């Protein structure tokens, strides 16, 4: 259960402000996710990752629509509008819902004096549509230094590299080898009407044609599969796991590799999973519990 006191967009704006203030998304997102019920966490994660992914384009547009920057105490409202712009430009959310709920989030953040500004800026953005980006940093949504570095090092391919870097990764699953063979689970997906194929390199991986909520995945809640990118899956396949070993997983949260190690060899003596963030360790335990696996969790700096 979560203990949310603010609308989701307000929580997302707080995460984005923390990123601006120097925290990584991996540091500030987990505590925010823990404030929400499990079924709402993917939505918040998508808002935060999407706003970060398109930050330079969204920020360029927002700054062009503001007559002057917001005062530092009101900076969170700048990020609230960035989250809303992300939804207007890159999501299927109804525009009226984005506008109305963002204004309500502004009130929930105790900034009622800025609701008129938020409403006006977002309604103007809705009417005008997406702007032509002012420069390559905004067009490709990367910092200037990175755009220039890639342009210099790969003059023929830099645009393709930047486009690929902004593409959302496909939804990939890792089949729990203690429960199902990959072909067997592919059959279950087909029966559920979910199009999928085996990954090219990871032996237990499955790539979905389109993302789906995890509650649509057969036996997900009972530990049949986990969501994990193919590259991350390959890490544990390179380990020479054997019965009786004690294995250390440093920087373990959210626990994907910890669980993959335990699935890869069911007779390990112990797996110790450490992470410097106490806020992230509950996610590791949640994954272990769902997969019916056991590991020793410790907060520590690797």
From TrEMBL:
Organism: Marinobacter adhaerens
Record protein name field: 16S rRNA (Cytosine(967)-C(5))-methyltransferase RsmB
GO cellular component: cytosol
Residues that bind S-adenosyl-L-methionine: 251-257, 275, 301
UniProt-listed InterPro entries: MeTrfase_RsmB-F_NOP2_cat (IPR049560), MeTrfase_RsmB-F_NOP2_dom (IPR001678), NusB-like_sf (IPR035926), NusB_RsmB_TIM44 (IPR006027), RCMT (IPR023267), RsmB-like_ferredoxin (IPR054728), SAM-dependent_MTases_sf (IPR029063)
One BP term from GO: rRNA base methylation
Gene Ontology MF, one: RNA binding
Superkingdom classification of source: Bacteria
Domain annotation SAM-dependent MTase RsmB/NOP-type: ranges: 161-302
PANTHER family (UniProt xref): NOL1_NOP2_SUN FAMILY PROTEIN _ ANTITERMINATION NUSB DOMAIN-CONTAINING PROTEIN, NOP2 YEAST -RELATED NOL1/NOP2/FMU SUN DOMAIN-CONTAINING
